[in-house]
Amino acid sequence: MAKATSGKCYVYVNDRRVGYVSDGQKLASEVRAARRNGMLPNELNITYFKKINAVHVNTDFGRVRKPYIIVEEGKSKLTPEIAEKVKNGEIDFNTLIRNGVIEYLDAEEEENALVAFEEKDINEDTTHLEVDLAGIFGITINLSPFPEHNSLARHAMLANFIKQSEGMYATNFNTRFDSRAYVLFYPQKPIVTTSSYNYTAISSHPSGQNFIVALSTYYGYNMKDAIVLNKAAVDRGLGRSMFYKTYGDEERRYPGGQKDEFKIPPPTAEGYLGEHAYANLSEDGIIEPETKVYEGDIIIGKVSPPRFLEENLGARGLEERIRDASTYLKSGENGTVDEVIITELTGATKLVKIRIRSLRVPENGDKFASRHGQKGVVALIVPQEDMPFSETGVVPDLLLNPHSIPTRLTFGHLLEEIGGKTGAISGKVIDGTAFDKKGEERLDEYGRVLEEHGFDRNGDEVFYDGITGMKFKAKIFNGIAYYNRLYHMVSNKMQVRSRGPVQILTHQPTEGKARQGGLKFGEMERDVIVGYGASLLLKERLLDQSDKATVYVCKNCGNLGYYDYIKKVKVCPMCGGNNLDAVEMSYAFKLLLDEIKSMHIFPSIKMKA
User: Fold this and answer.
1) What pLDDT is stored for residue 346 in this prediction?
2) Which terminal Cβ of the chain has fewer Cβ within 10 Å, N or C?
3) Which of 165, 491, 183, 490 shows the shortest CA–CA distance to 335?
4) Among 23, 60, 92, 225, which one carries the catalytic annotation?
5) pLDDT of residue 6
6) Mean pLDDT within 501-513
7) Counts for the chain of helices (H) and strands (E), in that order
8) Contacts of residue 92, Cβ cutoff 8 Å, sequence gap at least 6
């Protein structure tokens, strides 16, 4: 933006220029004073930009704003008397805003503010004071203990993992019919909590468990982000959950008085699958609760009228034709029928919903994450007798690679482990709120409690190898951390295909698990195979297992021909000859030749003699 003419300070309201004043700094000060006195709405924000000599006023929606305590003449307007009234509930937060004690600033007006973290930091230039240092982070980040000790990138990951975690998402989950739901067995409240965790009452919807975590390698199995779990802990219910999937269907009505009907399809129905396919269904065509079902099993039997009206009547016009429109379990899914409901929609249309449940026990490939963005995939589940153990016989639930802490800059994870260990020993909930005023005193307190109970103040312990029984030369850091099990599970992603459906246009395999599709082998994968010089493997992936097609090529003109099964002769439609050879090529290449011909270009394939 160009600098305003000397003496003219342009004023912009919601980025539209509305006029100018001679002194922008004075205007901003007067508007702020009027806002604090209640003469202007507190949603208004004003900023004076000295470099460009312009004033920006913002009143629009969608601005992120943050509350600050107003500081005037070097003193905070939130006096001890007012703070005591707030604490006793005599006045609320909105009263402080109306009385000009607290105001909201947006990102632009913060440019004109000098904010002090604490009252002792206030000087003559200070304009505002932080309400609470933890407010620098949002609610989501404050759910993690000691977040100020973690890298900024981990905060974004933490927010993602909280959304993906399994837990008690609703207390009435057994009466709900959500399309997909995950319920964790034995969810726990974390030992190390924060003020945000307590204020938001998230403890009523816990989403994780307290794991005993040791920072140790295990014969190379927990390289990088991989983790190793204790099999005995898994058998006791660590990370175990239930997966619910809801299927549904309804009896639709069609023009002409036709409608669907729930029942076991008769053998005369189009698409009838045989008597064995409907063996699990009741007389009304609906499966019963507690029936075990597997991939491809019919769970709702339904017949529908034909798609086109002319198909409706049989050869003599006496018999009405129907087709099988049953609902079946999708590929890769299995479980037990948990509950069935039959109800009616408006217009007396029958609706059926069936909830399938399946147990999910942690297995190799499942994903876990701490509250510090430390995600990991299970690489090995080890019998308890082979796990390392401490002098007191404590066996960790999870082994985390020690390299994952300094490389990810998640030192809050270490603090949580020490805090969790302290809380477990002392029987207290530990406060891990960000920017706690006690600061370094917290670590000294944890160390003192640990030493009182015979532990190393830094959380290190002597460990023994469960396989050899030998004592490790180095002490191993261990403690208790709150871990979430994420809904990314191997059992939901397992996909196998040898032969299956292909796309009509390209003759290549379909994409996606739901369509029994293949996995993509792209250009970068191709480059790897080229680099290794594995030409036969490349041919197998890109031709044999993809869209291999045998076409006839004319030796005379190079055009594609066909085989006339009536005359039992190969024919070239271009030159009329019958001197053609069968050639294997990718169907996508054959399609390319056809598309080139559509542009009146004749591609010719030259055959060797």
Assistant:
1) 81
2) C
3) 491
4) 225
5) 57
6) 90
7) 14, 34
8) 86
Mapping DSSP onto H, E and C, the string for 447-515 reads HHHHHHCCCCCCCEECEECCCCCCECCCCEEEEEEEEEEECCCHHHHCCCCCCCCECCCCCCECECHHH
**Cα first-last separation, the chain:** 72
Average pLDDT on 134-154 reads: 90
Instruction: List domains and CATH numbers for the chain.
Output: 9-136 (3.90.1070.20), 147-240+364-485 (2.40.270.10), 243-360 (2.40.50.150), 495-544 (3.90.1800.10), 548-597 (3.90.1800.10)
Cβ-contact 304, 251 below 8 angstroms: no
Query: Which residues lie below 8 Å from residue 35, measured CB to CB, with a gap of 6+?
Result: 41, 42, 44, 46, 103
Instruction: State the Cα angle at 271 between 332 and 507, rounded to 5°.
Output: 60
**Residue type, position 172, single letter:** N
In degrees, to the nearest 5, what angle opens at C-alpha 74 toward C-alphas 68 and 75?
Answer: 65
Known active-site residue 235: no
User: How far, CA to CA in Å, does 380 sit from each of 209, 212, 214, 386?
Assistant: 19, 16, 15, 12
Q: What is the mean pLDDT of residues 367-385?
A: 95
* Closest residue by Cα to residue 369 from 223, 186, 159, 195: 159
Confidence of residue 2 (pLDDT cuts 50, 70, 90): very low
Give the ranges where 203-321 is alpha helix by DSSP (H): 231-235
Full-model pTM: 0.82
Residue in the block written with tokens 């994968």? 525
pLDDT value of residue 348: 76
Rounded Cα–Cα distance for residues 353 and 342 (Å): 7
Q: Is the pLDDT of residue 464 over 50?
A: yes
19 has pLDDT over 80: yes
Answer whether residue 485 shows pLDDT above 70.
Answer: yes
Work out whether strand 115-116 and strand 128-130 pair parallel, antiparallel, or are unpaired. Answer: parallel
Distances in Å between the Cα of 75 and the Cα atoms of 28, 33, 72, 132, 334 are 21, 16, 5, 17, 66
Q: Closest Cα to residue 238, out of 297, 166, 176?
A: 166
- Amino acid at position 265, single letter: P
Secondary-structure percent of the chain, ordered helix, strand, coil, rounded to 5: 25, 30, 45
Place 318 in a pLDDT band, splitting at 50, 70 and 90. Answer: very low
pLDDT tens column, 250-300: 998 888 778 889 999 999 889 888 889 899 999 999 999 999 999 889 999
Contact status, residue 165 vs residue 485, Cβ threshold 8 Å: yes
Give CA–CA dist 247/245, Å, rounded. 7
